[in-house]
Amino acid sequence: MSSPSPLFHTLAVIGPGLIGSSLLRRAQQNPAIAQRLIAIDQSADVLERVKSLGIADQVTTSLAEGVQEADIVVSCIPTGAVASVAQQALPHMKSGSILSDVASVRSTITQEIVPHLPSDITYVPVHPMAGTEYSGPDAGFSTLFEERWCLLIPPESTSSSAIERVETLWQLCGARTRRVEAHYHDQICAMVSHLPHLLAFTICDTADRLSTDLRADVLDYAASGFRDFTRIAGSDPVMWRDIFLANRDIILQTLERFQGETAKMAEAIRTGDRDAITERIERGRRIRLSLLENRQA
Ligand SMILES: NC(=O)c1ccc[n+]([C@@H]2O[C@H](COP(=O)([O-])OP(=O)(O)OC[C@H]3O[C@@H](n4cnc5c(N)ncnc54)[C@H](O)[C@@H]3O)[C@@H](O)[C@H]2O)c1
Ligand SMILES: O=C(O)C(=O)C[C@]1(C(=O)O)C=C[C@@H](O)C=C1
């Protein structure tokens, strides 16, 4: 008996880095996803690596060539480049195909892409809430999305059949899926992802600006607290610069909220208010424990 046809005939990934190569690896392992895999990147070195890893049937630096036969194009490039690359790709995509991307910020990017959408191509952006601090094709792995949320953020009036196909794609990658509205998505991510990265980069920068002797000792003796808190400070600078700028207003509001809470904790410490200090620690701890219960830690 022949196996059922895959979800897509041809899947093209623009930017086979951490996220893109993880998607390709998964698609290669799971024939239900696509029959043919294409990797597109501006870097010939990245494509050489993709070839050696054997995770695509075709590689190309040409956007036009890479997208023209694809039934779905998933752009996995830095947030700041997503809208302009989409605008360059769209005229070469075939009628009835789907454009998607995995950018970490939604409202601003979707607003830039939607006016350029031809009526016969559907845009279904997603955001897999999974990653690591590493980048590039060697950093990817096929189980990256397993048990993680993949948020779908389709613009209003997107056809439900296209949304369902994209949802199925990510479920075949092992993810749990949910549809959310773009502004709400950006508020959530400002809190759970963008603020933590901003703090991790800044705490490392603060240590770096200490006097020479103190800085050296701080880094020598950094134990698990500093280490756990700053793992994500190893992340890619371009990716995070782009995210901070694309979600500027919401990140600044979230940061202001955080500074307000920090000021209250500082006041409790200054005045020796033991109950207030304990209550604040307990609230934070409860949140951390709830992440474990929700399988998110
Ligand atoms: N890293 C994470 O944890 C994570 C998680 C979810 C979503 N994201 C989002 O996914 C996207 C990719 O992140 P990543 O960590 O996989 O990045 P990465 O640096 O590992 O890979 C990005 C790839 O895009 C290529 N690229 C850059 N500009 C390009 C262009 N103009 N045309 C073609 N190729 C181009 C690079 O050469 C590289 O191969 C970003 O938008 C990021 O915000 C990242
Ligand atoms: O685990 C990490 O290293 C990540 O940074 C992953 C992480 C996150 O902040 O949770 C990073 C950016 C994304 O858009 C989604 C996931």
Automatic annotation (TrEMBL):
Keywords: Oxidoreductase. The keyword Oxidoreductase applies. This is Cyclohexadienyl/arogenate/prephenate dehydrogenase. Pfam families: PDH_C (PF20463), PDH_N (PF02153). Residues 9-297 form the Prephenate/arogenate dehydrogenase domain. The keyword Transit peptide does not apply.
